[in-house]
Design a protein that fits this description.
mainly alpha
Length: 103
C-alpha cells in the first residue's frame, strides 16, 4: 500500500514564513493568513496600477483582498472622505507581501 503524500506548500519554508508573519503582527489582534501565489502576483500588479490615485474598482479589490487576508468583513470605505482607511489596508497588506517576498 502506497503512503499518502502531504500536499506540499508552494513556499520553500512555510514554518519560517508563518513565524515572520506572527512576529510582524505580534501586537495586532487580527492575524493575517499566508498569501497564495496568485495573490502575491496580484498585489504586485495592483501596486503598479494604482499609482497615486485610487478608483472605485480598485478600492473594491483592495477591500476584498484585505478581508480575505485578515479574515474580516470590512465594507468599502468612502472614497471621497479620508484616505486613512485605504492607507492602513495598503500598509498591512504590504507587510504581508514583503514577508512573502523575503522568504
Amino acid at each position: 500500500m502506497a503512503k499518502k503524500r502531504r500536499k506540499s506548500s508552494p513556499y520553500k519554508n512555510t514554518k519560517a514564513l508563518k513565524e515572520r508573519l506572527t512576529k510582524s503582527f505580534e501586537y495586532s489582534s487580527v492575524k493575517p493568513r499566508l498569501l497564495e501565489d496568485k495573490e502575491v502576483i496580484m498585489w504586485g500588479d495592483f501596486k503598479k496600477e494604482i499609482g497615486n490615485k485610487l478608483e472605485y474598482k480598485n478600492a473594491v479589490r483592495l477591500t476584498e483582498m484585505y478581508n480575505s487576508v485578515f479574515g474580516l468583513s470590512v465594507d468599502v470605505p468612502c472614497l471621497n472622505c479620508s484616505p486613512a482607511p485605504f492607507l492602513k489596508m495598503i500598509k498591512k497588506i504590504d507587510i504581508v507581501y514583503k514577508v512573502h517576498k523575503s522568504v
